[in-house]
Design goal:
The longest helix is centred in the C-terminal third of the chain and has 27 residues, at 332-358. The termini are far apart. The chain has helices at residues 44-49, 59-64, 68-73, 77-81, 93-99, 125-135, 153-178, 200-211, 229-239, 257-264, 275-281, 313-317, 320-328, 332-358, 362-373; strands at residues 2-9, 12-19, 22-26, 28-32, 55-58, 87-90, 103-106, 109-113, 120-123, 139-141, 189-194, 217-220, 249-251, 270-272, 284-287, 290-293. By secondary structure, the chain is α/β, with parallel strands linked by helices. The chain has two domains: 2-273, Alpha-Beta Barrel (TIM Barrel); 280-373, no CATH class.
């Protein structure tokens, strides 16, 4: 891997990251395909059309349904889903702690029941690395615990210390797996995850500790899980300066366009979130003039595209009235078109962000973008 900062504008950084599956231009929004598909009937050909650089899939979900060993037999996730660009796999840690109703956390890992059929599963650092190695993703995330943002200080401190120990085990196991001759992707990269809920001092100390491990990249996890936006920005202000600037920085599970714009200003360059696809499946679409709900009756006779001048497949060919009709008729095409539009909007916004940083006008761009999206769209 080679990660190189090309331009800086304040703390915002414009970089490129060369990987075995292609070069990533950052800041970048990773389109979320949890089970190796974007919800909303979006194909990998569609992803290429709308400018997707990185697809994100989930270790836990692919392990409990279909299975990573089956995917390995197909030559890994890239071949299985016909995607030739980078893939990041989340470690499964967040899902273990958010979906598993019954779980027991021990030093070796977590014992829990599958949310699909209730069967008992054990996952620890080594198991997460082995699953991700079977998937052959470009970037693997370390296995961590994501404590609730409002958990008490003593619990968070102990949890973070265990996450640090787990990270060392992840690094050792990844090195072992990458050295095997039959590994799907022997160039698989490992990102560590900073935790600490909303306690700045715990976050900063953890950032310093994991920075010593010289990993391929660093993520900030455990945000956008109940705390306010202001608290999230406060934590980013405190933590990002203590992560290596010469490595990619990833804010996990974030977020709204406004969240992304603010986080870029704080030195973050990787993002992912289900918002664009989830909102699209419910007829909510993003525009530069605010969000629209296409089920509103005022769009019944509206001949305009979702947004004038947008180059997405929906806006190039269909009217608001037609897409509203599809939702009213419960036709899947309506969801598909809105998801395509929203993902295109996010990918295009990241392109604009990169351009603004290159031209040292990011502050002006951010202010104009935020002001437009806060408005009332017609």
């Amino acid at each position: 891997m080679e990660y190189k900062i090309l331009y800086k504008d304040g703390r915002a950084k414009r970089a490129e990251m060369k990987t075995v599956h292609g070069t990533i231009q950052t800041p970048v929004f990773m389109n979320v395909g949890t089970v190796a598909a974007i919800k909303g009937a979006v194909s990998t050909d569609d992803l290429r059309t709308i400018g997707t650089q990185v697809e994100l899939s989930n270790t836990y979900h692919l392990h409990v349904r279909t299975g990573d060993k089956l995917i390995r037999q197909f030559g890994g996730l890239h071949k299985f889903m016909n995607w030739d660009r980078p893939i990041l796999t989340d470690s499964g840690g967040f899902q273990v702690f958010s979906l598993a109703g019954l779980r027991k956390i021990k030093e070796e890992g977590v014992y829990f029941n599958s949310h699909i059929d209730g069967h008992k599963i054990f996952m620890g650092p080594e198991e997460s690395m082995q699953i991700q190695s079977n998937l052959g993703s470009t970037i693997a995330m370390a296995f961590d615990e994501c404590p609730p943002s409002l958990a008490d200080r003593d619990y968070v401190q102990k949890s973070v210390e265990r996450t640090t120990r787990w990270l060392a085990r992840c690094k050792d196991e990844m090195a072992r797996l990458n050295a095997l001759p039959d590994t799907v992707n022997r160039e698989q990269l490992l990102f560590g995850i900073n935790q600490g809920a909303i306690y700045e001092d715990i976050r900063i100390e953890h950032a310093k500790e994991i920075s010593k491990m010289n990993l391929d990249g660093y993520a900030v996890g455990g945000l956008a899980v109940g705390e306010s936006h202001e608290e999230m920005y406060r934590i980013l202000d405190a933590v990002v300066p203590h992560l290596p600037e010469d490595k990619p920085t990833y804010l996990m599970g974030v977020g709204t366009p406004a969240n992304i714009l603010e986080a870029v200003d704080r030195g973050v360059d990787f993002f992912d979130c289900v918002y664009p696809s989830r909102n699209g499946r419910h007829s909510h679409v993003y525009t530069n003039h605010g969000k629209l709900n296409l089920l509103n009756s005022k769009y019944e006779l509206d001949p305009r595209p979702i947004e004038e001048g947008c180059g997405c497949p929906a806006c190039r060919s269909y009217s608001r009235a037609y897409i509203r009709h599809l939702f009213k008729a419960k036709e899947m095409l309506g969801m598909r078109l809105c998801v395509l539009h929203n993902l295109y909007f996010y990918n295009k916004m990241m392109e604009e962000i990169r351009d603004a940083i290159e031209h040292h006008c990011y502050a002006e761009y951010k202010a104009k973008k935020l002001a437009g999206m806060m408005g009332e769209s017609n």
